[in-house]
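W.,

You were right to be curious about this one. When I first looked at the sequence I had no strong expectations either way, so I just let the prediction run and decided to look at it fresh. Below is the sequence, 363 residues in total, followed by the output.
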Amino acid sequence: MQRICGSLAKNGYQVQLVGRSIKGQPALSEQPFEQHRLPCWNQQGPLMYLEFNLRLFFFLLFRPADLFCAIDLDTILPVYFASLIRGKKRVYDAHEYFTQQKEVMSRPAIQRIWKAIEAFSLRRFPLGYTVNDWIAGAFQAEYGVHYAVVRNLPRLTDAAKAMANSGALQQNELSPQAKELQPFFIYQGAVNHGRCFETLIPAMQEVAAPLRIYGTGNFINQTLSIINNSSLEFKVSVIEPQTPAILQTITPQAIAGITLFEAQGHNQYHSLANRFFDYMMAGIPQLCVDYPEYRAINQDWEIALLIPDTQPQTIAAGMNKLLADSVLYLRLKQNCLKARNVLNWESEEQVLLAFYRNIFLKQ
């Protein structure tokens, strides 16, 4: 959201990003756009969603604006009703296929509620965009909406810009041996259901390098239990979430990244995770599931070693191959450094700007 709001603000739009205040969260960092957190008494469960939606509705009802943008289904109802009452334009930004998340699908009653919200709302949001072609196609087939595709690509880092400008690259910078004395694998992002920690952690028993997990989420307690039960505390570390700026200094030090999802549910099987591109921007190869969206990118750029399933033995074999096969590693590394000059937010934001420009030109 910071990338999207920042791009719009940089190009002359007055933007305000509204979210929920969460106990213990860090203070807002300075941005080129306005930010506001709505205080909520309830911090989790159905009452939290109800309270947040009501507070957001009344906030939007009196906030000066020309257009409201809902981010995922958990904000779509207040945006719809506020925009309807006030006669304002509305846009839907679908960061994922919300009703196909594992944590939603595993609770049929909850999934039916969210599916009803989706069916009611999307037909009333003819303007929108999402993160990949498959989700856009699914929404079009089911609800008749034609959404743009704005991939959540990372900004070019200072290191990437410097390397692109200089064109200089030493061969020892490309090899696994150029990493720190004890190379490590990295997972960055949400520690949630469906990310394969149940099989990734046992796989580490057969891998000749440690794993660092940077993040937290709804599967964090189970992840810590799996580590303890597998007696892998010496090899698998769970580290609290870091800011993007700090991760940009940590991730390039890793030997490779990890991008795994269970095949259950369209949201996982047709995902295109931020970390997939974050590893590329950091200039490191990654082990990734061979699902359609990742396969399509990899066919063009070959930045990842794709594996056919997420069983422990398959994961371990893939990680050890990245450690042992220097020819493969060198090729993937070189491809990451080439791909990041094309697959970056500086290029992708042009799609976003054209989308909003077209809306306001039609006024």
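Here's what jumped out at me. The longest helix spans residues 45-62. And, maybe more interesting for your project: Residues 191 and 216 are 5 Å apart (CA to CA).

Coffee later to discuss?

I.
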